[in-house]
Design a protein that fits this description.
Layout: H1 4-10, H2 17-27, E1 35-39, E2 42-44, H3 52-62, E3 67-70, E4 75-76, H4 94-115, H5 125-138, E5 140-141, E6 144-145
Antiparallel strand pairs: 1-2, 1-3, 3-4, 5-6
Helix pairs in contact: 1-4, 4-5
Protein name: Conjugal transfer protein, TraH
Keywords: Plasmid
InterPro entries: TraH_2 (IPR010680)
């Protein structure tokens, strides 16, 4: 559980605390030094970092060659950075990681909300939240690389509690977590399908 003071001091103010905590619970880690490395959809086992320096050594070793996620929010290391040597220890600082992660997640939520037509109903918010978490984990939403995409801007309206208190499905260890840093296989392009639940239409 995230410390309330950490959320207040460090999280993007455009996200309510009731959204920040479920986001980190669903997509992040309780360990500020946590480093997750995936390549070709497979999880690469790396040593558990015992210090910020050790964590950054692991990040720099794999950045640019694999998908590297870091810290409380499992922020994608290397976004906007061309040289792994330019990666900063901010990635493993709890406050800075939470700030960067929530700013990026807020942008992703705006991208998803825009795709849905920016619905004003609070009932639509849980679906937007779930799709934003999915996009955070995979790096894509409807064929768009969300980490590099332009921020559509605007407020995030009707922030309601995510379904089931935000207990989203944990990332499947076998599910590829793709970002703009990892080359796409040609056969995977255009493979993404719709993720909208239509089962309730027509009273079914």
């Amino acid at each position: 559980m995230l410390d309330a003071a950490l959320i207040k001091d460090c999280a993007d103010p455009s996200l309510k605390p009731a959204i920040v905590e479920p986001f980190v619970s669903a997509a992040g880690s309780a360990d500020p030094l946590a480093v997750t490395v995936r390549s070709g959809g497979r999880l690469i086992l790396v040593p558990k970092a015992r210090s910020p320096d050790e964590a950054m050594d692991i990040v720099r070793q794999y950045a640019g060659k694999a998908v590297v996620r870091v810290g409380l929010t499992q922020f994608p290391a290397g976004v906007g950075v061309k040289d792994p040597a330019d990666l900063k220890p901010d990635l493993v600082d709890a406050c800075q990681n939470l700030r960067m992660g929530t700013v990026m997640f807020a942008k992703i939520m705006r991208i998803v909300a825009k795709w849905y037509g920016n619905p004003k109903s609070a009932d639509a918010f849980p679906q937007i939240f779930e799709d934003a978490v999915y996009a955070w984990k995979t790096g894509e939403f409807e064929g768009v690389g969300v980490f590099q995409a332009e921020d559509p801007g605007g407020p995030i309206t009707n922030q309601a509690e995510p379904r089931d208190g935000g207990e989203a499905e944990p990332a499947d260890e076998e599910t590829p977590a793709q970002t703009d840093a990892e080359p796409r296989e040609p056969q995977e392009v255009g493979k993404a399908g719709m993720r909208i639940d239509l089962s309730r239409i027509g009273g079914k």
